[in-house]
Design goal:
4 helices; about 140 residues; two-stranded antiparallel ribbon; mainly alpha; two-stranded antiparallel sheet
């Protein structure tokens, strides 16, 4: 007894699965961007409310969001001594003041804002995923 199975539309099914994979990556990137934008806005809004005094405004302007790459997205300053807002790193983790000859303790900003915003970020990402998947 020989059994024959005939698949009709298998190529279309494979194409749909491949389209779903590409769409899921776009949806994931949009969710990352939405969460990153929310965090960036909150950091910019609270940059001067955690012990840092406003002088030139470069700290607020130096907060950037990268584009998603390898399912990662970064929010913060660009880094480097010549980059604007480089001193935010020192305020976040503390630094040794050579003139005073002592360690200046940290006055964290980003970690506090992130911890306070994590539920809102996850909710924004979940909303974007639901919208993208049509749920």
């Amino acid at each position: 007894m020989i059994m024959e199975i005939d698949f009709q539309g298998l190529e279309e099914l494979i194409a749909e699965v491949e389209n779903l994979e590409r769409a899921s990556q776009r949806i994931k990137n949009r969710a990352l961007i939405r969460g990153g934008d929310l965090l960036k806005e909150r950091i910019e809004a609270e940059v001067y409310s955690h012990g840092l005094s406003r002088r030139s405004g470069t700290a607020q302007e130096s907060i950037v969001r990268t584009n998603p790459k390898n399912d990662e997205l970064f929010v913060g300053t660009q880094g480097g001594v010549q980059a604007p807002g480089f001193y935010l790193y020192m305020h976040e983790f503390g630094y040794f003041n050579v003139r005073a000859g002592r360690f200046i303790g940290p006055r964290p900003l980003v970690s506090i804002v992130y911890q306070n915003s994590i539920n809102d970020i996850l909710e924004a990402q979940a909303d974007e995923l639901r919208k993208g998947l049509g749920l």
